[in-house]
Amino acid sequence: MHRITLNRMVHRGEPQIAIQFDYDDAVKQYVKAFGGVRWSQTHRCFYFKDSTSNLHQFFKYLRKKSWYLDYSALNSGTKSIKAETIPAKQTKQKPQALQAVYKDLPKTHKELLNRYVKYLKGLRLSEQTLKVYGNFCLQFLNYCRDKSFENLDTKDVSRFVEDVIVKRNYSISSHRQCISALKHLGEFLNLSGLDYSQLKRPKKDKKLPTVLSREELIALLVATPNLKHRTILSLLYSAGLRIGELLNLRVQHIDLDRLQVHVKNAKGRKDRTVKLAQVLKPLLLNYYTSYKPTDLLITGRDGQRYSDTSIRALLKRSCKKAGILKTITPHTLRHSYATHMMDNGVALRHIQELLGHAKPETTMIYTHISQRDLLSVTNPLDVIVGEITSPDNQHKKVSISRQSLL
């Protein structure tokens, strides 16, 4: 269902009605066909002259379409017309929607986007980074479709961030990736109007990761009876793997005799070796016997690559069955692996190597959630009560279970 929002604005010194909607060619052509509608390059929207007559004519014009209309920002001349509100929160565009956007992109912009992706490949960025950067630049070029890309400048980027990234409620992490993608685009085009110093990334969230307790981890594995599914979850935890690393594992990467897994070409194009749990050996032997993998260790039907969506779905089912109420993702198992090692006294630099972190600062987050040192800290209330009830103060009676202390 298409959604159109009306708002008042002043353009060229005169009151106007701004028409805003997520880009769709059918909506665009229909709105443009309304008499008196013009395009504002400054405000990046269509508009018409603000008058009661024009408003009523526009409402009558839109009644021919079954579209949502939000005109709650208009405070006069519209109270006799029933309002249809739209949700305040907008969602990210799905892959299918992005494909449609690409298909509708002007030929010049398509060619530019393809050359940009080739440029990124030349920088030897990962496939995931190529996908993310390409999608953000696709949305940006679509947003600026009516402007020659040689004239793109910092203001265009700022408007795009405000109108698309913020309004569609992208995460801080995605916002940062978007700025990086657009900086690469500016470098590729050598845009003179793009001031890189003005393209600021928002600060990263400093949220502590969710971690499973030891009891929850065992409950999760017990609640996963399917052999392949249990092998997937056990490997994610036992080797502290990222989901992409697990899906890229091949049979020859597992050394059962030495209980090691060799992670190849991981994040940052780094290899590393991680020791597996002894209890995992019989599970893997059983998996080999049952599924007989020959290339990729974990495969879907017909030997095809297993999907990350399937892993997230099976993890969600197992968590529900195990009675785990926390929000758990495959990466939670990696966080749990690191935290439990720190609880067991493993040195920070060893954990950094096992996780494949480039910087020790990344690994240090687990010092904030590890319980090893925290559990040894004496609560100050115990200290106070202990001092009062010491042999030197035996005449005093202390109780915190009653309303007053005696």
Shape: globular
Radius of gyration using CA atoms only: 29 Å
The counted number of beta strands is: 8
How much β-strand is present in the residues?
5-15%
- Which residue ranges are poorly predicted, with pLDDT under 50 across at least 5 consecutive positions? 76-90
Helix content: 40-55%
Distance between the termini: 69 Å
Please describe the biggest sheet, giving its number of strands, its sense, and whether it closes into a barrel: 5 strands, mixed
Trace the largest sheet across and list its strands: 3-4-2-1-5
Mean pLDDT across the residues is 81
Order of helices and strands: EEHEEHEHHHHHHHHEEEHHHHHH
Structural class: alpha+beta
Number of helices: 16
Protein architecture, described:
By secondary structure, this protein is α+β, with helices and mostly antiparallel strands. It contains 16 helices and eight strands. The strands form two sheets. A five-stranded mixed sheet has the order 3-4-2-1-5, with no helix packed on it. Strands 6-7-8 form a three-stranded antiparallel sheet. A hairpin with a 4-residue loop joins β3 and β4. α5 packs across α7. The radius of gyration is 29 Å and the shape is globular. About 4% of the residues have low confidence.
